[in-house]
Amino acid sequence: GDSVTQMEGPVTLSEEAFLTINCTYTATGYPSLFWYVQYPGEGLQLLLKATKADDKGSNKGFEATYRKETTSFHLEKGSVQVSDSAVYFCALAFMNYGGSQGNLIFGKGTKLSVKP
Amino acid sequence: NAGVTQTPKFQVLKTGQSMTLQCAQDMNHEYMSWYRQDPGMGLRLIHYSVGAGITDQGEVPNGYNVSRSTTEDFPLRLLSAAPSQTSVYFCASSYSTEEFTEAFFGQGTRLTVV
User: Fold this and answer.
1) pLDDT in tens, B37-76
2) Distance to chain B for A100, nearest Cα, Å
3) What's the mean pLDDT when you consider all of chain B?
4) Which has the higher per-residue pLDDT, A74 or A29?
5) By the CB < 8 Å criterion, does B26 face chain A?
6) Rounded distance between C-alpha atoms, residue B35 and residue B13, angstroms
7) Which of A36, A65, B35, B96 could form a disulfide with A89 if both were Cys (CB 3.0 to 4.6 A apart)?
8) What is the mean pLDDT of residues A64-70?
9) Overall average pLDDT of the B105-111 stretch
10) How confident is the model at residue B76, as a pLDDT?
């Protein structure tokens, strides 16, 4: 079945370090891909998205490129801040996929801690 | 702009008790869903609805009931709570176009069953 696999954490970085969180997916069709972020004690917020191959999503200095050939959507940021400490979820969803359009399939999440 | 509103934020239940988690959205989205979040498991889909009067099961539906009488509301019912239902529950509403789907989440309900 369809699934998302992301690197396990926790990930601990120093401020201004480079961040990569790997995400790969298995899907029978052509999903939209997402990164959601969950700050401590809060719900999930959409961080960025990409809807087709080679699209690059970006927001708040984070980027991810939809790579169809490697079925990947890795999250990157050039210089992390303490305020980026959160749990990051990679997810996929299908467009107009029968009655289940809108269903998100999540990875297990990666906890990021950034130290000053 | 309220978005998706969940109540309550915290709840403690005794085994066997029943309760309803409330979810309301003001974005006129047809699609709504419930997820549970457990450590190391990510988020798993419990039930979803593609419009008023239509519901369906997700990955982990056992022990939960839903109904969708209006576009705005999508309550989740636990008929007889069990410790295995201790979790954080998120409601989401989504819209889809031919090009993409986007989901908006509530703040979550932290449920403890003792």
Assistant:
1) 998 788 999 999 988 999 999 889 999 999 999 999 999 9
2) 7
3) 92
4) A74
5) no
6) 19
7) A36
8) 95
9) 94
10) 98
Name the CA dihedral angle for A104, A108, A110, A111, rounded to a multiple of 10 degrees: 110
Q: State the pLDDT at residue A97.
A: 46
Checking if the pLDDT of A112 tops 70, the result is yes
Separation in Å, CA of B80 to nearest CA in chain A? 26
Alpha-carbon distance B107 to nearest alpha carbon in chain A (angstroms): 4
Q: How far is B45 from chain A, CA to nearest CA, in Å? A: 8
Q: At a CB cut-off of 8 Å and minimum separation 6, what does A105 contact?
A: A2, A3, A4, A91, A92, A93, B45
DSSP secondary structure string, A25-71? EE-SS--EEEEEEE-TTS-EEEEEEE-STT-EEEETTEEEE-BTTTT
For residues B90 and B33, what is the distance between their CA atoms, to the nearest angstrom? 8
- For testing contact with chain A, the best of B48, B90, B100, B110 (most A CBs within 10 A): B100
What is the chain A residue with the closest CA to B37? Answer: A108
Taking alpha carbons only, the member of B90, B30, B79, B28 closest to residue B54 is B30
Give the pair of three-digit tokens for residue B103: 């989901």
Q: Which one-letter DSSP state was computed for residue B5? A: E
Residue A48: closest C-alpha in chain B: B102
Pairing mode of beta strands A11-14, A110-115: parallel
Give the separation between CA A107 and CA A24, rounded to whole angstroms: 9
Q: Do A49 and B100 touch (CB under 8 A)?
A: yes
Among the partner residues A99, A105, A107, nearest to B50 by beta-carbon distance:
A99
**3 state DSSP class of A9:** coil
